[in-house]
Design goal:
Elements lengths: L2 E6 L4 H13 L3 E7 L19 E5 L5 H10 L4 E4 L6 H6 L1 H22 L8 E7 L24 H20 L3 E6 L1 E3 L8 H10 L4 E4 L5 E6 H14 L5 E4 L4 E3 H15 L11 E4 L14 H7 L7 H14 L1 H7 L3 H10 L2
Parallel strand pairs: 1-2, 1-4, 2-3, 4-5, 5-6, 6-10, 7-9, 8-12
Antiparallel strand pairs: 9-11
The chain binds nicotinamide-adenine-dinucleotide and 2'deoxy-thymidine-5'-diphospho-alpha-D-glucose (DAU).
The site of 2'deoxy-thymidine-5'-diphospho-alpha-D-glucose (DAU) has 19 residues, from helix 6 and strand 8.
Length: 351
């Protein structure tokens, strides 16, 4: 069926994988990638699809309500997959306002634009909101997991802004009947992730023999998922998810930061042709992140049981693939870390 699907944040890390999957798998859909191209958005992430007939890029800010309505009307948008956001927790600690603007107000603009442009006639319409497990707060070091019923308890300005946007999405469903679906996913890794996040930052620093800043004692735990598995999950929920419902997505794959860092060091050293583990000397313990959540872990059994999704890659295999990709794409790494990012990095780590 012909569909005009707007994907916001399509030039970012996860968005670019979602755009690629949809453009390649659904030639009958027209994919409109709407992105402001902040420091985290990069059209080089989508070189391989930019000439496809079912793909259009629109540079726009989700905070610009009139522009968003114009895009809805011009392209007769049927469905929204909303990923655009400020996404880095550390930045939210130093600049919380931009997180409230983009993540809360930007989402509200999109919801309202959808409502107005669809004139409250929602047949065959869908607003898909991509969210995070961080809205649930932090777990102890035990066997508990975040389920779809876990109470929201965000701690960082980033997670507070995402929690707020989730509430607005549900409010539009409950109040106006907007057909929505929300997914809350754990930590993603893979190609095209901006190298301020743990995995690409550390691969880049190992490559350049720069310090590896471990927050606190490195004991915090995250649940890691290969980004293409997340994109597949989004595609599945987009097509088969229940309207008004929420699905958690995770890797069933918890790692203590320091263990993951050691694995990264070993893998990167080996693929760079260095003696395995030699870069451990770069590990530098630094002050802990303010409000650092201890542990995240997702119970993804609902999406597994109801929609048949599960992660396809073993972590070691995914890490190997990821490290190899960054080593093979040093031009990409160098180009996205030039300019404004250099100032941010120096300020952040006092290096
Ligand atoms: P990212 O920072 O790599 O990309 C964000 C994209 O949004 C960029 O292309 C950026 O240019 C665009 N953008 C930012 N502000 C915008 C605005 N005002 N208007 C239009 N576009 C704007 O983020 P990501 O890691 O790919 O995350 C994508 C989404 O998935 C976010 O909503 C995030 O909260 C969520 N999420 C991320 C993870 C993760 O591990 N990275 C996990 C779960 C959920
Ligand atoms: O859980 C999902 C979330 O995962 C997403 O919603 C966010 O958008 C995404 O950025 C990610 O958030 P985290 O804060 O978990 O990711 P980050 O890569 O920043 O950090 C991962 C862990 O590594 C965390 O415990 C902090 C630690 N860390 C991070 C950096 C950047 C370090 O020890 N040193 C670092 O330099």
């Amino acid at each position: 069926m012909k569909k005009n699907v707007i994907i916001t944040g399509g030039a970012g890390f996860i968005g670019s994988h979602v755009v690629r999957l949809f453009v390649n798998s659904y030639p009958e859909y027209h994919i409109i990638n709407l992105d402001k191209l902040t420091y985290a958005g990069n059209l080089a992430n989508l070189k391989d699809v930019e000439d496809k007939p079912n793909y259009t890029f629109v540079k726009a800010d989700i905070c610009d309500f009139d522009k968003i309505k114009e895009v809805f009307k011009t392209f007769k948008i049927d469905n929204v997959i909303h990923l655009a956001a400020e996404s880095h927790v550390d930045r939210s600690i130093t600049d919380p306002f931009s997180f409230a603007e983009t993540n809360v107000m930007g989402t509200l603009n999109l919801l309202q634009a959808a409502r107005e442009c669809w004139k409250d006639n929602f047949e065959n319409k869908l607003f898909y909101h991509v969210s995070t497990d961080e809205v649930y707060g932090a777990l102890e070091f035990d066997n508990t997991l975040f389920t779809e019923e876990t109470r929201y308890d965000p701690h960082s300005p980033y997670s507070a802004s995402k929690a707020s946007s989730d509430h607005f999405v549900r409010a539009y469903h409950d109040t106006y009947g907007l057909p929505v679906v929300i997914t809350n996913c754990s930590n993603n890794y893979g190609p095209y992730q901006f190298p301020e996040k743990l995995i690409p930052l550390f691969i880049n620093n190992i490559r350049r023999n720069k310090p590896l800043p471990v927050y606190g004692e490195g004991v915090n735990v995250r649940d890691w998922l290969y980004v293409e598995d997340h994109a597949r999950a989004i595609c599945l929920v987009f097509h088969n998810g229940r309207k008004g419902d929420t699905y958690n997505i995770g890797g069933f794959n918890e790692w203590k930061n320091i263990d993951l860092i050691r694995l990264l060091v070993k893998t990167t050293d080996r693929l760079l042709g260095r003696e395995e583990g030699v870069s451990e000397k770069l590990i530098t313990y630094v002050a802990d992140r303010a409000g650092h959540d201890l542990r995240y872990a997702i119970d993804a059994s609902k999406i597994k049981d109801e929609l048949g999704w599960q992660p396809s890659l073993q972590f070691e295999e995914g890490i190997e693939k990821t490290v190899r990709w960054y080593i093979d794409h040093q031009d990409w790494l160098d180009s996205v870390t030039s300019g404004e990012y250099q100032n941010y990095y120096r300020e952040m780590y006092k290096m």
